[in-house]
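User: Some background: our group keeps a shared notebook of sequences we're curious about, and every so often someone picks one and asks for a predicted structure to add to the entry. Today it's my turn. The entry only has the sequence so far, pasted here. Could you supply the structure so I can complete it?
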Amino acid sequence: MVSRRRRVASGAMRIVVFGATGYTGRLVAERLVAQGARPVLAGRDDARLSELASSLGGLETAHADAMRQNSVFDLVGSRDVLVSTVGPFVKWGLPAARAAIAAAAAESGLSASDLAAIFERGAYSRNCWVQGGEGDWLIEHVATLPEYRGHGLMQALIDHALAAGRAAGFERASISFLIGNAAAERCYAKAGFAFAEEKRDPAFEAITGAPGFRRFARAM
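Assistant: Of course. Here's the predicted structure to add to the notebook entry:
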């Protein structure tokens, strides 16, 4: 096992899979290796990282924890691709997103004040994020192309996502969508989901046209 703990500023591009030992992270890492890539596996459990790295041919690993933002910043170089599989993303994805933005800003020559302004412009969405419970299987972005709508594919996609969650040991699922998306709400209700919570924010509505986010949940 090779452990990398400092951000790389130059050299060849790397693909860094953050949250690699989780269910989704493992699938992503396995698929990348199957396609000939050599991703860096990152997460907070060094023993499980080492085991996974060995099973995939001796991949490089890096220690990082979503609760310690600096450790995530240290993962990413200006030429790297960061794939965050830590979930739920609305709760734990911010450090990864900020790290990727910071690396791109450094490469572009943006100043610290420029970077702060970028983060401030995105702050409008914080007040209406809906996160779900700690143990929820979070389903996001279920969609089909317009020409395939009305053929039952959405329900099949949701069923597939629920089956994956059950296989991973989850007992409850959450799904979120913009308030006012009536088609999504009908689809999720048909799949057995029911209202759990919603958050609204005038600033978010002024920018996006939607009052906020609504979350539905169901037992697995």
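Suggested note for the entry: Residues 137-219 form a domain with the Aminopeptidase fold (CATH 3.40.630.30). The longest helix spans residues 94-108.
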